[in-house]
Design brief:
The structure is a homodimer.
Chain A (H helix, E strand, L loop, with lengths): L4 H11 L5 H12 L4 H8 L3 H22 L1 H25 L3 H17 L2
């Protein structure tokens, strides 16, 4: 079972609450807690294959939701755009000495940062 | 059956592809096409109650997904923040006469607008 940690933690962050309780529990242990299949199996008193199968179904569900909705991709694209806008506001701050413009640009930068939260 | 058009078309826009084909079909006719339950029933050769039941299950699914993920709410909040930032950039443009600052602010405004698309 190949571990796609970056992709899966991102999808889990968005859609995790749509998984079953057991899928969420194993996802958290496997991806966030970095436990092995065997460690989860032992702790939960089931077979390693049982754990793998729960995780696999969860991964398939998350991947399917993203293929259908594209919301994680959409959020990611927005993040990139916001980062680009932030860089431009910083440039503007470097270029201008006008106090009022600087104050406005400072507030704009703060609001842009809260967009990324 | 109360018709929550604004809420449902918004949820449908985000999560519609997670519904069954039949739910999507009836949603489109009922919410986007503004057909009545009876008109859909007649066109599809089923009972009015059958149409209502398909739509109800679709609505429950969309509402449940939003309750669990909150993504539509999150997108909505971002839209408001972006609109607020746009207003501040317009103020900045009104206040400054510096050509370089104005050029930068103009590009920032364009990028903010593409965020809202």
């Amino acid at each position: 079972m190949e571990k796609h940690t970056f992709e899966m933690t991102l999808l889990f962050d968005f859609y995790g609450d749509l998984l079953t309780g057991k899928q969420q529990e194993y996802f958290d242990l496997y991806y966030n807690g970095d436990l092995s299949l065997s460690e989860i199996a032992e702790a939960d008193g089931i077979t390693r294959q049982g754990v793998r199968s729960v995780l696999k179904r969860g991964e398939d569900t998350l991947t399917d939701i993203e293929e259908k909705t594209g919301l994680v991709r959409r959020f990611g694209e927005q993040r990139l755009l916001v980062a680009g806008i932030e860089a431009q506001v910083r440039t503007l701050l470097e270029k201008t000495a006008e106090p009022e413009t600087r104050a406005l640009a400072g507030r704009i930068l703060e609001d842009l940062q809260s967009l990324g939260d």
